[in-house]
Amino acid sequence: MSEFEITEKSGLILEGGGMRGVFTAGVLDNFMDRGIKFPYTIGVSAGACCGLSYMSGQRGRAKYSNIDLLQQYHYIGFKHLLLHGNIMDFKLLFYTFPQHIIPYDYDAYSKRQELFEIVTTSCNTGLPCYFRENKNPERIIDIVKSSSSLPYVAPISYVDGQPMLDGGIADSIPLERARSLGFCHNVVVLTRNKGYRKPFKRSVVPFLFYRKYPALRQAIANRNIMYNKQVALVEQLEEQGGILVIRPENPITVGRMEKNTEKLLALYDEGYNCAARIKFTQSNLCTNI
To answer: Model confidence at 289, in pLDDT bands (50, 70, 90)?
Structure first.
């Protein structure tokens, strides 16, 4: 069993990964079952969505949204892309779900003392943007929706009138962001197995996409290189004992837009069980663990 001491310098970093985020949902449900909290959490895309339910203390909400309601509402598919320009039904996910079907507890989130940041990518600069918002429900939705807006298969979203896309374009694993804020004793939750790398080359961005945003095109083209460098840093710090990494133990068979709920449930269970094998202690914190 691994051990990790949570201190005032501890952060929790949540990678994205589309439907692979159910692994993160399992990890966070285990944390909630044990009352485990961190002074600082940062999430990207699916990690941000799961992180919001973690911050509001709604155990099981992310699992229910990503597995049970997927089976019921079929909100992923090319029919949505053809009809609405988005491969996922964002109206259902970011408005109907949190307002009516599985209401989000904005009040509980607003009362949390711990910091939570969500990563987006600015279309204008191609750089990551880091948002903290726990008071304004509409702005919270704008931010997390932007963080989850995948290039090519989702329209550009807006935060404060500024065009944004998926946070994973510019900062897939925001470990360095946490370290820059002084959180140097971190837990990193990844949604790929150890050793995974993207093809180590620049991606070709089709000419028709994002012609108004040359910096965004460059960020998309360089994403694989950026991601692999971030994974290498994670593995280096892990070997040095500077961070704890929770990741799937076997090569992932769940796709970014996975619709097989049996595979999703198995990955959720793996996340829960991986987290359960870690013993957490605390140092000089008010958090009860």
So the answer is: very low
